[in-house]
Amino acid sequence: MPLAPRDLAPGLRHVWVNATGKERYFVDQDDRLMWIRRLCRVLDRYGWSCVAFCQMTSHVHLILDVPDSSIALGMQELNMGYSRDFNALHNRVGQFVRRRYNSRRIVDGDDLIGAYTYVVLNPVAAGVCSCPEDWRWSSYATSVGISSDFPFVDASLVSAVAGGSIDALRSVVESRARERLSKQAASGI
Fold first, then answer.
1. Residue 182: its pLDDT value, please?
2. Integer Cα distance of 2 and 110 in angstroms
3. How far is it, in rounded angstroms, from Cα 140 to Cα 154?
4. CATH, domain range 11-187
5. How do beta strands 59-66 and 49-55 pair?
6. Taking the CA of residue 28 as centre, how many other CA atoms within 13 Å lie in the half-sphere pointing to its CB?
7. At 18, phi and psi to the nearest 5?
8. pTM
9. What are the domain boundaries of the chain?
10. How far, rounded to the nearest angstrom, does the alpha carbon of residue 126 sit from its chain's CA centroid?
11. Is there a smaller number of Cβ atoms within 10 Å at the N or the C end of the chain?
């Protein structure tokens, strides 16, 4: 059965990519930095804005503001280029990405807050850190002024929706983290 056509409309998007099977998408810091450099080239080439990103071990999440219908072209460039670089660096051959990237359009401010908190809380949910600002491979610490590691990230859209300031954004993320922990405790997870 053929794949459904992509939604290529401009706007805010939550995008994610997974490695094949149990493969690691990032083996080490060099892989993570290589992907970030490639992402920056794609952002520049296509005029996209990166609202957030989070690199996990087996996958990566992005929130992008795409001004036109270039999402498929840019993601193909990012994924194919990173896959080629990763395979060369790790003496690997064959398919690296599980399947084509996933993307969903963010429809309003509430959806943006939901997608953003999901992305930045991913490492907390996975148990790799206790606070989202502690995960080195996420843009969250940069977005809330704790670090300056990822200057290409512009979280001003999500900050505006969250209440207009970095403190308001942090408050929303912390509140969502508490909600998630309460739900997990209630369900026995």
1. 75
2. 32
3. 10
4. 3.30.70.1290
5. antiparallel
6. 4
7. -120, 150
8. 0.92
9. 11-187
10. 15
11. N
Nearest-angstrom CA–CA distance, 20 and 98:
4
pLDDT at 46: 98
SS (H, E, C) 6-60: CCCCCEEEEEEEEECCCCCCCCCHHHHHHHHHHHHHHHHHHCCEEEEEEECCCEE
User: Cα 169–171–175 angle (5° rounding)?
Assistant: 120
| Count of helices and strands (H, E) across the chain | 6, 4
Token code pair at residue 7:
């939604």
H helical segments located in 54-128: 71-89, 109-125
Angle, CA of 36, 38 and 165, to the nearest 5°: 45
